[in-house]
Amino acid sequence: MTDHLMATYRRLPVRFERGEGAWLWDSEGNRYLDALSGIAVCGLGHAHPGVRDALCEQARRLVHVSNLYQIPGQEALGARLCAAAGMERVFFANSGAEANEAAIKLARLHANRRDVQRPEILVMENSFHGRTLATLTATGNRKAQAGFEPLVSGFVRVPYDDLDAVETAAQNRPNLVAVLAESIQGEGGVVPPSPGYLTGLRELCDRHGWLLMLDEVQSGMGRTGRMFACQHEDVLPDVMTLAKGLANGVPIGACLARGEAAEVLGPGSHGSTFGGNPLACSAANAVLDALEEDALPERAAELGERILSGLRDALDGVDGVVDLRGRGLMIGVELDRPCAELVSQALTDGLLINVTAERVVRLLPPLILDDAQADQIASRVARLVRAFLQQDGQPAG
Ligand SMILES: *Cc1c(COP(=O)(O)O)cnc(C)c1O
């Protein structure tokens, strides 16, 4: 019964009891292939032995102590993430929204120290950065914001993947101090920017003295074929945020920074009771172990190519299919009409997928798929999409 839960989610009528790798089983014993990973969270699949053992071992010794004390697992995780991302310091939180809140506060404090009175942060249309007030304001989705006014001031919005618009904003907004953008837009419809866009943002930030803050909450942790999606362009941001895939389902978020940005937050300026506690960090360290040992970012690139080419073979030129795109295991099938029903049709078929931005089937499968599972995802999604387009008939008016 969901009577006592606030109705923030429209839940599908299924209860999962157990998972293993890319498979899930419901309370009736039915098996499902997971092409969503709890929305890009369980990148190592379900019940991953390394994560499971790390969690059990840590739970037996110590779950939580508070950041009033030194936490070796957090220090190790911080060092490893910094090495992987080219960053210098990390603040640990519990979610993507909190990681972005830390980035926003950091940008403001940095501006304040340089005597910029009313600092502004440049954000993108169709972006998603979270549901807290500041991150909701940064989010480029009017529907998500509706009713929560007054929103937070100090954000300026431009279209994504449009460097001219950023340059124009630079001319008109003297108080801009930072750019916050996803390296690949996720909720906005799986939108990788044009080649050169992130490099262009980096150059504009350098020219205008802004911080480049990249939200890798969804695209990070190996999913797109590199550890972080900005590494496809060899772009180094000043601030990077992580969460979703970082601890395979244990809540954690991270705000990484380098250079001046790494020295901004100090005692009293920010904090978190739970952030980076021993339990969450043990899971995240186990995730990093597995990503490294099994070369999972490289594998994600391979699997992504495999799924995308399977989808192309089956869906290219099909009426109603507008675009097939993605990078690694962040894949979108854009249709010409709203297609939310596809989610429950796939569920009935034993497949977990998602639809975002109304018309985009989004696939975020775990990085531990075998080739046969990848092929199954491609063929089953293609079959569902074809059937949906035929049954639905009416193209969008
Ligand atoms: C999911 C997501 C967030 C928010 O993460 P929460 O953990 O739900 O707060 C922020 N940014 C991006 C890009 C996301 O995909």
Describe the structure.
- A 7-stranded mixed beta sheet has the order 4-10-9-8-7-5-6, sandwiched between helices. Strands 1-2-3-13 form a 4-stranded mixed beta sheet.
- The protein has 2 domains: 16-34 and 295-391, Aspartate Aminotransferase, domain 1; 49-293, 3-Layer(aba) Sandwich (Aspartate Aminotransferase, domain 2), CATH 3.40.640.
- It has 12 helices and 15 strands.
- The chain is α/β, with parallel strands linked by helices and 397 residues long.
- The model has no long low-confidence stretch (mean pLDDT 97).
- The two termini are 39 Å apart.
- The protein is globular and about 60 Å long.
- Helix content is 37%, strand content 18%.
- The structure holds pyridoxal-5'-phosphate.
- The site of pyridoxal-5'-phosphate has 15 residues, from helix 4.
- Pyridoxal-5'-phosphate binds at residues 95-97, 100, 128-130, 182, 186-187, 215, 217-218, 243-244.
